[in-house]
């Protein structure tokens, strides 16, 4: 009978389009499986849970789920194959990196466990180095990023890491961060011409670097912004909450170039930042400050779920600025304490202008 209950849960999940509702149902299914000590159902349902939560602004249940799944693989190697879990594990590594509550020591321990499991399941270290590159960028350690890019270049592609567009995105980002604009444009030519692309690249590449291009006085900025906005429309059918912080980079650029376009994006994406993972929330909150740092009032079509929502839709812009600045400041301090540096505080000072 309990197996029939679980099957009904899965049928209901197939009919739902809202990931939050699917997560709630899957948790119910997991509770039923656990109550009957059915490890097999518990395994399958937790994998479904991680997949569903990936479409939400923040992973919460997934951390417990991946821990349970990996433990099940360790305890029952003849029953479950950890090789089948490595994609979910890779997803959760990104979520862990963006969660300020997870210490740097814990993060490195998780990374090493991921590396160990890759090797014993005949994967290359390509995906491991990709994760380490992103951690190095978060820490502001460009030397480490270069090191991991070099290591990755020596690894073969595999089922977990095979996107040449994403790989080129990492390489060009490093050149931009070093201030080597011309070299970045040369190296990333196939990316910026869309000869190489995937779901979210080169959208992220255009957004990520457009403000640095602006500060360098590059003529390509307007063209990049136009392309990025077209990319948003192209991605709408499979838009991920992880793209919201990149949209906020466009808002920062447009706040000085085309204010009304910036406001349209803010109205459209502010609600998508609700409940975001810590680092994504930090990015969004920091990037919108340049738009909000104005005197006076403005009518804004805001989602009722936003904490600053007003029924009359008339907002004091300085109050909105202070709200996002407080949030960005709090998150920057959390990450700086975790990282043992002031990298995020420096980014806040840069992005708010």
What is the string of helix and strand elements?
A: HHHHHHHHHHHHHHHHHEEHH
What is the spatial order of strands in the main beta sheet? 1-2
Instruction: Note poorly predicted spans.
Output: none
In one word, what is the shape? globular
Largest sheet properties:
2 strands, antiparallel
Q: Tally the helices: what do you get? A: 19
Strand content: under 5%
The rounded distance between the terminal residues' Cα atoms is: 61 Å
Number of strands: 2
* Structural class by helix and strand composition: mainly alpha
Instruction: Output the radius of gyration.
Output: 21 Å
Helix fraction by DSSP (H/I, runs of at least 4):
55-70%
| Mean pLDDT across residues | 95
């Amino acid at each position: 009978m309990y197996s029939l209950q679980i099957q009904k849960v899965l049928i209901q999940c197939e009919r739902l389009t809202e990931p939050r509702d699917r997560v709630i149902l899957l948790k119910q299914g997991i509770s039923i499986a656990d109550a009957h000590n059915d490890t097999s159902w518990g395994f399958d349902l937790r994998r479904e849970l991680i997949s569903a939560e990936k479409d939400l602004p923040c992973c919460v249940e997934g951390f417990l789920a991946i821990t349970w799944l990996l433990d099940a693989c360790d305890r029952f190697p003849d029953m479950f194959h950890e090789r089948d879990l490595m994609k979910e594990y890779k997803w959760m590594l990104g979520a862990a990196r963006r969660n300020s509550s997870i210490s740097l020591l814990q993060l490195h321990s998780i990374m090493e466990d991921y590396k160990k499991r890759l090797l014993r399941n005949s994967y290359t270290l390509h995906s491991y180095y990709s994760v380490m590159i992103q951690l190095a960028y978060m820490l502001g350690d460009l030397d480490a990023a270069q090191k991991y890019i070099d290591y990755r270049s020596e690894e073969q592609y595999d089922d977990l890491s095979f996107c040449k567009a994403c790989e080129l995105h990492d390489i060009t980002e490093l050149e931009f961060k070093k201030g080597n604009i011309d070299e970045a444009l040369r190296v990333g030519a196939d990316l910026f011409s869309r000869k190489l692309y995937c779901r979210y690249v080169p959208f992220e590449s255009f957004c990520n670097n457009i403000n640095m291009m602006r500060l360098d006085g590059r003529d390509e900025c307007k063209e990049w912004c136009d392309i990025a906005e077209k990319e948003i429309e192209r991605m709408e059918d499979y838009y991920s909450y992880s793209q919201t912080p990149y949209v906020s980079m466009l808002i920062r650029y447009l706040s000085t170039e085309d204010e009304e376009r910036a406001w349209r994006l803010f109205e459209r994406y502010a609600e998508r930042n609700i409940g975001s993972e810590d680092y994504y929330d930090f990015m969004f909150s920091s990037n919108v400050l340049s738009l909000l740092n104005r005197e006076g009032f403005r009518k804004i079509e805001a989602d009722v779920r936003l904490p600053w929502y007003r029924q009359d839709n008339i907002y004091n812009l300085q109050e909105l600025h202070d709200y996002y600045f407080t949030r960005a400041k709090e998150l920057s301090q959390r990450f700086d304490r975790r990282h043992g540096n002031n990298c995020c505080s420096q980014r806040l000072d840069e992005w708010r202008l």
